Amino acid sequence: MDEQLTVGRVAELAGVSVRTLHHYDEIGLVQPSARTAAGYRAYSAGDVERLREVLVYRRLGIGLREIADLVNDQATDPVAHLRRLHTLLLEQRDRAAALVTAIDTELKERAMGIRTTPEAQLKVFGAQLYETIGSAYPATRRTDPRIAASIWGALGDARTVLNVGAGAGSYEPPDRDVTAVEPSAVMRAQRPAGAARCVDASAESLPFEDQSFDAAMAVSTLHHWQDPIAGLRELRRVARRVVVFTFDASDPGWRHRFWLTRDYLPEVAGLTAGRPSVDQLARAIGARMEPVLIPWDCADGFFEAYWRRPEAYLDEPVRRAVSVWTRVGPEAEQRAVTSLRADLSSGRWAERNSELVALDAAELGLRLLVA
Ligand SMILES: C[S@@+](CC[C@H](N)C(=O)[O-])C[C@H]1O[C@@H](n2cnc3c(N)ncnc32)[C@H](O)[C@@H]1O
């Protein structure tokens, strides 16, 4: 159906003034190309699509001239446009989440009579997510020996290994020649003395020649990459073998697999919307996929790690070391924690999840991609 909307109706729906729409029309940014039955100029479905794009870019603070270049880019198809908008919005949300965390911290510090230094007050504006949450990471995040065994096994006989999104160095094999890549200065600073050399770069643009390494690995990092497919192709370009530890959210019912997302934090689903599926990722580099079970006493405190130890999620340091909790925002976090606390004390959690007590390891969608 080709629906046409008048200028007034579009202004009302989009929450902008008719004057703004006229201005976009005059400068050729979005021109209503249809006519109503009464002969008035109207917006076609295509015009609305273009306007939506313009409005998202405006909300991201981009200037009109730059927006015109972006929306007139003929080389980019509508899906690629949407993906670009999606990535930019996620980045903006991450930046907002980082600011909320920083302000929360400052409020708590002020309540204790501690004044945040001028340097710390400004630092958060220049920071990416891990610049803000990264310092909480080492409290609970470390190599789990069983997951490490799967990753190291998949590296085969590789002697030189590139670890991308390396963070503080978990899972770096001690018996190989490792080079790390990590874009966050906060994370790089937390690498232990004697850890492998670490380069400041991102997966999407690796500063290495083709085939420089026997293998490239990426652990619990792919969901942070702006363009995961471009990043994986980079890994493929610089190494003969690629091993990625990631998460499968391709099955529409995935969030029901884990009680935390099913019963307490459904907002997690919004974090993966629009991202490439694990099948698309695997296809991009011709990888095979292997499930990785999470041991009940997993030593690496990632989001799913405490599936049989639910009380752990009530601990603030456990949550601060997992970006999901910051990305869903403080309201969802508090609601989930309050509700979990109540269900743990009433016995409702135990009732609903009685089958977990007998399990030593759980399949919660973690995957190893090996190419
Ligand atoms: C959850 S941590 C994982 C760190 C480490 N691999 C581990 O298993 O402990 C995710 C890391 O990915 C990094 N990261 C974010 N975006 C990236 C990108 N585009 N390329 C490479 N690393 C990135 C973050 O700075 C962060 O250190």
TrEMBL record:
A Pfam cross-reference name: Methyltransf_11
CDD domains, alphabetized: AdoMet_MTases (cd02440), HTH_TipAL-Mta (cd01106)
Molecular functions (GO terms): DNA binding; DNA-binding transcription factor activity; S-adenosylmethionine-dependent methyltransferase activity
Domain of life: Bacteria
InterPro entries (UniProt xref): DNA-bd_dom_put_sf, MerR-type_HTH_dom, MerR_fam, Methyltransf_11, SAM-dependent_MTases_sf
HTH merR-type domain residues: 4-73
Protein name stated in the entry: DNA-binding transcriptional MerR regulator
Stored SMART domains: HTH_MERR
PANTHER family xrefs: HTH MERR-TYPE DOMAIN-CONTAINING PROTEIN, REDOX-CYCLING DRUG-SENSING TRANSCRIPTIONAL ACTIVATOR SOXR
Keywords noted in UniProt: DNA-binding
Organism: Kribbella italica
